[in-house]
Structure formats: C-alpha cells, structure tokens
Amino acid sequence: MEINRNVLLPNLVTVGNGVCGFAALTWLFKVQVVEGEGASVVFNDAGYFAAAAWLVLLGMVFDVFDGKVARMSGGSSALGAQLDSSCDLVTFGLVPAVMMLRLAMGSPEWWQRVVWFFSLAYFLGATLRLARFTAENEPEESAHVAFKGLPSPGAAGCVASLVLFFSYISEFKARELQWISGFIEPETLQTYVACIPMILPPLGLILGFTMVSNRLRFEHVGSRVFNRRHSFDFFVYLIFGAILVFLLPEIILPLIFLGYLLYSPARFVLRSVLSRKAPQVPDEWKVQ
C-alpha cells in the first residue's frame, strides 16, 4: 500500500491526536490514592489529572486541524478517515472513561462498580458515535456544518475541563485564587469541588447517550469560525474571548464546554414547546 504525499501531512496531524491520548493514559496511571475514602480521598498528585486533561484538549486542536489540512492539501482518503476515528476513540473515548475510573479510586466498592458501568456507557457511546460518523462522513465541506449528536471531542472536553477545574481548585496554589479566600474558606471551596468525581460518572452516562442521539444537532465550531465570513464585532469578541481563556483556562473552559453541551438540548426543548403552543390554522383558512 502506497501513501500519497498529499496524505502524509494530515495523517501526521491525526497521529498527533493519538499520541496525546496515549500520553494522557500514562499520566492517569501514575495517580495513586494516598489517604482518605469517598469524597475526602487524597491523591498523590492531582497534577497528574491536570496533565491528562490538557493532553485531551491538545488532542482536540490536532483533531480540528487534521481535516482542514486534508481538505486544503487534497489529501482526504479512506486511510485518513479510519486513522482519525481510531485516534479519536483513544483520546476522546478511552481517556475520559479512564479519568472517571481513576477519580473513583478510594471510593466504596459498590460505587466503583457503578462508575465502571457509567464509564462503559460513555466509551460505548463514543465508539458508536465514531463508527456512525466514519460510515456517513462525506469529504465535501458543506457536510461539516453540523453534527448529528454530540461530537466526541465535545464530550471529552466536558469531562477533561471539569477534571482540570477539579485539579485546579484541589491544589489551590494559583495566585489568582488567593482573593477568593476573603469570601469563602479554601477548605469549604475544596469540599464543594470534591463532588466533581461523584458528578462525572452520571454526566458520562448522559454524554454517552447524547453522542448517539439522532434528534440533537450540534454546530461544527471549526467550520463556524474558519469557513464563514464574519463581522468585525465577531472578530473582536473572538480575540478578547481567547485572551480570557488564556488567563483563566481552568475556569472558562468548563463553562464553554458545558454551554456547548446544553445549548442544543435547550434549543430543541424550546422549539418543541413553542411548536405545541402555536395555534393550529384550519385547512380552509390557508391560502391556496
């Protein structure tokens, strides 16, 4: 099998995504429980979770640009599509599921079993989502405007950003957090954030279902930003939003990903409610 030179660059970008997933797994397996049980468990270094979460987010960057590079260079191929799904399954399917399992270490045995099933539901949702996307994928740019169901990078971003926030607050070493001490005790804030490992497994179940939903449509953010003409105001908002994310990524990123997750279901429910409330016009009143 020979590989066309136009295919080489986009495939290397895709492999970068897979490398991020593999590296994230190695960081997650370094996490060990030091003491405690349940919500009060203490890990040897919460920074391991943060490193894995950052690698998932870096994998999303590779995933955004591999398709763009392939279409720009004319290097789209069946091999690239299969490679992309394989790397996505590792970085956006397996790694978030393992994150939930590792965060459940030190919990009661019955809860660890529940988390195992929730993590499996997330992983299977990502697997089915990627299999369907590969089978239905079309190379034309017009086919990449919206997703049928939550895209796996968006689901992984929800998990990774919350894990990043959990690690950020658990350590409470960042200078920008010190002003919070005047309003709320660090221990109290850390107690609330300690609930994130308990929240993530049910969220994983929801994400797994949302990824395979046929009714929900999620906008392709990359196509929205790079493939459309925008006003000057949009450009300004994009610049200042990027600066805000750069300054406080651990706080802003969870808000962005959760907002992306909730926007489409909220819009779907709102449209359903409004369509039911709309008055029905008799056929004889309609203009022929």
SSE succession: HEEHHHEHHHEHHH
Main β-sheet, spatial strand arrangement: 1-2
Distance, first to last CA: 61 Å
Find the count of extended strands (DSSP E, 2+ residues).
4
User: Which strand-content bin applies to the residues?
Assistant: under 5%
Give an account of the 3D structure.
The model has no long low-confidence stretch (mean pLDDT 81). The strands form 2 sheets. Strands 1-2 form a two-stranded antiparallel ribbon. It has a two-stranded antiparallel ribbon with strand order 3-4. The protein has one domain (5-174, 183-278). The chain has 288 residues and is mainly α. Helix 3 (78-103) runs antiparallel to helix 4, helix 3 runs parallel beside helix 5 and helix 5 crosses helix 10 (249-277). It has helices at 5-28, 47-73, 78-103, 109-136, 152-171, 186-193, 196-211, 221-226, 232-247, 249-277; strands at residues 33-35, 42-43, 146-148, 217-219.
Features:
single chain, two-stranded antiparallel sheet, globular, mainly alpha, 288 residues, two-stranded antiparallel ribbon
List the helices and strands and how they pair.
Blueprint: H1 5-28, E1 33-35, E2 42-43, H2 47-73, H3 78-103, H4 109-136, E3 146-148, H5 152-171, H6 186-193, H7 196-211, E4 217-219, H8 221-226, H9 232-247, H10 249-277
Antiparallel strand pairs: 1-2, 3-4
